[in-house]
UniProtKB/TrEMBL annotation:
Record-stated family: Belongs to the glycogen phosphorylase family.
InterPro entries: Glycg_phsphrylas, Glyco_trans_35, Pyridoxal_P_attach_site
Single GO MF annotation: 1,4-alpha-oligoglucan phosphorylase activity
Lineage, top ranks: Bacteria, Pseudomonadati, Pseudomonadota, Betaproteobacteria, Nitrosomonadales
Enzyme Commission number(s): 2.4.1.1
Protein known as: Alpha-1,4 glucan phosphorylase
Cofactor: pyridoxal 5'-phosphate
PANTHER family with a match to the protein in the record: GLYCOGEN PHOSPHORYLASE, GLYCOGEN PHOSPHORYLASE, LIVER FORM
Record bears the keyword tRNA-binding: no
UniProt catalytic activity: [(1->4)-alpha-D-glucosyl](n) + phosphate = [(1->4)-alpha-D-glucosyl](n-1) + alpha-D-glucose 1-phosphate
Free-text function comment from the UniProt entry: Allosteric enzyme that catalyzes the rate-limiting step in glycogen catabolism, the phosphorolytic cleavage of glycogen to produce glucose-1-phosphate, and plays a central role in maintaining cellular and organismal glucose homeostasis.
Keywords for this protein: Carbohydrate metabolism, Glycosyltransferase, Pyridoxal phosphate, Transferase
Organism, as annotated: Methylophilus aquaticus
């Protein structure tokens, strides 16, 4: 007994000593000393010959030190408490640069800046050397990044899951006015912020066949003769703001099971020796490979299944390590599907539970529908992913069987509740039999989730009444709304330090974590001195943007002009082309002397077109051709400038949003699910010109009718116009200015060396029906732009409205959004362990 007591005492002493040692290790050196240490011991250089990149890496390692202790403690606390966790599955996480954001969220930015100044460096300059993490394309990925920031800030136990793309989508350059796609090699200088976790690798299987084996338990399916790759996890810490919580973003990279074949190498067949590695690594090489070919489609489905199965395996491994009762799965796990890209997770979870863990189908399905929720991001049926049954049967034969069984049981249920309605069965079936037999991934996500949400009030209502009307009838109450939001840490605190400083001076710094406090600035809209200070901030941000544009494009801008900004993915429904029609209208008015007395205007575009989207790329080319004519016309001078800002990414957005006076949100009503660029620009003091589409509706409600410029057909009016046989020719012949603009595009005014260059754009507007009703909204848009121009001349009135926009943006914090998800969908609370 004495020996046992001594042994326990010894173990206790060892444990306490270990904790003491851990606490010692987690203590941080003064930042100047930490910087010098990392330069010496991590980089292996002295100050006398260190390059700027050496100093960036040194600074990043120093900030990472502060992250690591919190990260480890957060994960240990979640594990020890066996708390419920949220798992956010997204094919994109557009997290941007980490250095400045992490330093700000950790609260060490001032000390870090001072420490760098002591050794002759500047934090701002070093931050510019960091590559944007090329893990996303646009709003979907940036939304996911805002969400993981908010989950950490709000102490929600959460993990994000995605793919560690080697090259991202592409780096956009503009050559001869045209988009050129270049590899975005963001990992060229390594990623200091990630930690490889080889102990958590997963096997991912493709191809093969399914055999059904008779056993004592009945017929069991076995997926055999498969080809396998390895999913290697890389973890990225996501620090919360004003909290000790650091959550995890786990990104999967594809590796070959046998990366090198020595036998082939020794035979002199060097290409064959690494063939397996190259084939495997293709899966995680590029975001959104062009799917215009059969091989491209196969690769995209491979990508989706690759990251989904690795994530589901990881989730279930963690669950089974700490829980013995499968029925507690929904009490411990909440999985959010960000759009349809991860929808195969529904079938994959069934595959794991039924085939690997041998649960009965009914029990497994109850668990699946207890853990999954699905966010829809589009109203356009053509944008909802479908995959051919043939591709599924080749690539994922067992999962096709599972989808068939899910569909069979679902349609049986529907038929019981709505007997004899064969049209309904056809419309809601997961298998589309009318377009060559295809798997409808959105339908799989709806059927397999307990909650489906839209991302703006209008969008969610339209889901219920149009796209998912049948499902709303079958599953009353399943469809709900959670309006999107943005993190004020990235989009105000980091992107706009001057405005943050001004606000903090008057209302304190609490708004950075609790954006509702920003409403306290509203009375200052009536304070003349504050309005002047606000304009000074905007002027400085515009000059910063003008300097960057000069560096990027060579175009010299007058920073006192109205900066009219449209930055988003290039797509017909977002209607950059409508903006171009207005630009040409302004150009014609200036040349004819009809625009006298108006404020100078700079129209700024930015965004990428998908590589296979030819017409979107033509719109980019037209913008640049128009810019070339307008910017070099001596009759125009500084009255109008047009700029296409190349390679739009998060770090570019951080300069573009604060520099905007006018926010262009002009999609056809009923097409944009939400938008978040509208929120970011308003938070940074821009006024919105937009249609009643997506989140514009709610922004209008928040800022007030007098502080936003709304124009154009409403969603019901768009539907009615199409039902009445909308004819764009009526508008073309009925508006002389519009006719002149379209004729200039069509007859080669902006492309004299190739007059027919833009015939396809003219055809889209006139001969192919003008699907997005640009011509119907043109006159209202131009008239509203006249109101914009008139107001801008009254800088006191303009700045008053801009301040009110900033003050009334509280609803659009991603913290509010995550709070609604946590309470109403995930049923999870802030962790207090």
């Amino acid at each position: 007994m004495a020996t046992t007591a001594k042994s326990k005492q010894k173990k206790t002493e060892i444990s306490e000593a270990a904790h003491d040692a851990e606490d010692f290790l987690l203590e941080q050196l003064p930042i100047p000393q930490a910087l010098r240490n990392h330069l010496m011991f991590s980089i292996g250089k002295s100050n006398s010959w260190a390059t700027p990149r050496d100093w960036y890496q040194t600074t990043a390692y120093t900030v990472r030190d502060h992250l690591m202790g919190r990260w480890v403690k957060t994960r240990d606390a979640y594990r020890d408490a066996n708390t419920k966790r949220v798992y956010y599955l997204s094919l994109e996480f557009l997290i941007g640069r980490m250095l400045s954001n992490a330093a700000l969220n950790l609260g060490i930015a001032p000390e870090l800046s001072e420490g760098l100044q002591e050794i002759g460096q500047k934090l701002e300059g070093l931050s510019e050397l960091e590559s944007d993490a090329a893990l996303g394309n646009g709003g979907l990925g940036r939304l996911a990044a805002c969400f993981v920031d908010s989950m950490a800030t709000m102490d929600i136990p959460a993990t994000g899951y995605g793919i560690r793309y080697d090259y991202g989508m592409f780096k956009q350059t503009i050559e001869n006015g045209q988009q050129v796609e270049n590899p975005d090699n963001w990992l060229r200088y390594q990623n200091i912020w990630e930690v490889q976790r080889p102990e958590h690798t997963c096997e991912v299987k493709f191809y093969g066949r399914v055999v059904h084996v008779h056993t004592e338990h009945g017929i069991e399916p076995h997926w055999v003769d498969t080809e396998a790759v390895v999913a290697m996890p890389y973890d990225v810490p996501i620090p919360g703001y004003g909290t000790q919580t650091v959550n995890n973003l786990r990104l999967w990279s594809a590796k070959a099971t046998n990366e090198f074949d020595l036998a082939h190498f020794n035979e002199g067949n060097y290409e064959k020796s690494v063939e397996g590695r190259h084939s495997a690594e293709t899966i995680s090489q590029v975001l959104y490979p062009n799917d215009s070919s059969a091989s491209g489609k196969e690769l995209r489905l491979k990508q989706q299944y690759f990251f989904v199965t690795a994530s589901i395996q990881d989730i279930l491994h963690r669950f089974t390590n700490y829980n013995a009762d499968w029925d507690s799965l929904p009490e411990k796990v909440a999985i959010q599907l960000n759009d349809t890209h991860p929808a195969i997770a529904v079938a994959e979870m069934m595959y794991q539970l039924v085939d690997h863990y041998h649960l009965q189908w009914e029990r497994a399905w109850k668990l699946v529908t207890g853990v999954f929720a699905y966010t829809n991001h589009t109203l356009m049926p053509e944008a909802l992913e479908t995959w051919s049954v043939d591709l599924f049967s080749t690539l994922l034969p067992r999962h096709l069987e599972i989808i068939y069984e899910i569909n069979h049981r679902f349609l049986q249920m529907v038929n019981q509740h709505f007997p004899g309605d064969t049209d309904l069965l056809s419309r809601v079936s997961i298998i589309d039999e009318t377009h060559g037999r295809r798997v409808r991934m959105a339908h799989l996500a709806v059927v397999g989730s307990h909650t489906v949400n839209g991302v703006a009030a209008l969008h969610s209502e339209l889901l219920k009444t149009t796209l998912f009307a049948d499902f709303n009838k079958i599953y009353p109450g399943k469809l709900t709304n959670v309006t999107n939001g943005i993190t004020p840490r990235r989009w105000l605190n980091q992107a706009n330090p001057l405005l943050t400083e001004l606000l903090t001076k008057h209302i304190g710094s609490g708004f950075q974590k609790e954006l509702s406090l920003i409403a306290n600035i509203e009375p200052m809209a009536e304070n003349k001195a504050f309005r002047a200070a606000f304009r000074e901030v905007k002027a400085a941000n515009k000059q910063r943007l003008a300097d960057k544009i000069l560096q990027k494009t060579g175009v010299i801008l007058n920073a006192s002009a109205l900066f009219d900004v449209q930055i988003k993915r290039i797509h017909e429904y977002k209607r950059q082309l409508l903006n171009v029609l207005h630009v040409i209208t302004l150009y014609n008015r200036i040349r004819s002397g009809k625009a006298q007395g108006q404020a100078p205007r700079v129209v700024i575009f930015a965004g990428k077109a998908a590589p296979g989207y030819w017409l979107a790329k033509q719109i980019i080319r037209l913008i640049n051709d128009v810019a070339s004519i307008v910017n070099n016309d001596p009759a125009v001078g500084d009255q109008l400038k047009v700029v296409f800002y190349p390679n739009y990414e998060v770090s570019a957005a951080e300069i573009l949003f604060p520099g905007a006076d006018l926010s262009e949100q002009i999609s056809t009503a009923g097409t944009e699910a939400s938008g978040t660029g509208n929120m970011k620009m308003a938070l940074n003091g821009a006024l919105t010109i937009g249609t009643l589409d997506g989140a514009n509706v709610e922004i209008k409600e928040e800022v007030g009718d007098d502080n936003i410029f709304i124009f154009g057909l409403t969603t019901p009016e768009v539907a009615q116009a199409k039902a009445d046989g909308y004819n764009p020719w009526d508008y073309y012949h009925g508006n002389a200015e519009l006719k002149q603009v379209i004729d200039m595009i069509g007859n080669g005014f902006f492309s004299v060396e190739e007059p027919g260059r833009y015939q396809a754009i003219v055809d889209t507007l006139l001969h192919k029906g003008d699907q997005y009703l640009l011509l119907a909204d043109y006159a209202a848009y131009v008239a509203t732009q006249e109101k914009v121009a008139a107001l801008y001349l009254d800088q006191e009135a303009w700045s008053r409205k801009a301040i009110l926009n900033v003050a009334r943006m509280a609803k659009f914090s991603s913290d509010r959004t995550i709070g609604e998800y946590a309470k109403n969908i995930w049923k999870v609370s802030a962790f207090s362990g």
